[in-house]
Amino acid sequence: MFFRTKPTTIPTPEASLPGRTAEMPVAPDHFVNGASLKGPYPTESETIYFGLGCFWGAERLFWTLPGVVVTAVGYQGGHTPNPSYEEVCSGRTGHTEAVKVVYDPKVISLETLLRTFWEEHDPTQGMRQGNDVGTQYRSAIYTTTPEQAEIVSRSKAAYENALREKGLGPITTEIGSAGPFFYAETYHQQYLAKNPNGYCGLNGTGVSCPIGLGVAAE
C-alpha cells in the first residue's frame, strides 16, 4: 500500500516487536453482506487463509464469489501478537497481509478458490507484489485441514507447471497450516467497498490453468 522499500527478511521471534494481549477493535459484521465477521459460522463451512499482497484488493476478489460466507482481513504468519497495521508495515512482526475466507464447500470448491488465488496475483515474486515490497506482501496459503493441504499441494504443482511452460519462475508462495490470525483494524475490513476508488496493487500473471487444477465446471 506504500511505495517504499521495506525489509524483505522475516525477523526472528526474538527480533520481533512485542505486540499486545488486547485484540484490535473490529466491527462485528461484514460491511458488504452483513455476515458475522468472527462467527459463529455455518457448521458446514470451512476456512482457509490467503495472502496475495495488499489485502484490500485481495479481499474483494473473494467476497464476490458465490459460496463464500464471509471474508476478513488480518495479519498472519508472523510472531507479534495482535499487531497494529503500522507495526506490520515496519517489517518487524513477520506477518503477511492475509484474507480469511469462510466458504461453503457444497457451493464453491476449494479448487475454484485456488484458481482465483493463483491467477489474480503473481506468486513468483518472493517478498513483494508488484510495487509493494516487503514481507507483509508475500504470497501465502494457510490451510485448516489435511484435506485442504492435499488439494493445495496438487494445485501448486499444476500451476507451477503452467508457469514453467510460459517461461516464468518458480512459485515462492508460503504454504503451511494456519497459525494465529489477527484481525486488522475495522477501517481495513472490506476497504474497497467503503472506498471504491481506493488503491489495489494486485497484478496477476495472466496465466490460467483450469485443467491442471482439476476444476470442474460449476
From TrEMBL:
Residues 1-20 are annotated as: Disordered. One of its GO terms (biological process) is cellular response to oxidative stress. Residues 47-200 form the Peptide methionine sulphoxide reductase MsrA domain. Keywords: Oxidoreductase. It is an enzyme of class 1 (oxidoreductase). It catalyses: L-methionyl-[protein] + [thioredoxin]-disulfide + H2O = L-methionyl-(S)-S-oxide-[protein] + [thioredoxin]-dithiol; [thioredoxin]-disulfide + L-methionine + H2O = L-methionine (S)-S-oxide + [thioredoxin]-dithiol. Residues 1-11 have a biased composition (Polar residues). Its EC number is 1.8.4.11. The active site is at residue 54. GO terms for molecular function: L-methionine:thioredoxin-disulfide S-oxidoreductase activity; peptide-methionine (S)-S-oxide reductase activity. Belongs to the MsrA Met sulfoxide reductase family. Has an important function as a repair enzyme for proteins that have been inactivated by oxidation. Catalyzes the reversible oxidation-reduction of methionine sulfoxide in proteins to methionine. This is Peptide methionine sulfoxide reductase MsrA. It comes from Devosia crocina. The gene is msrA.
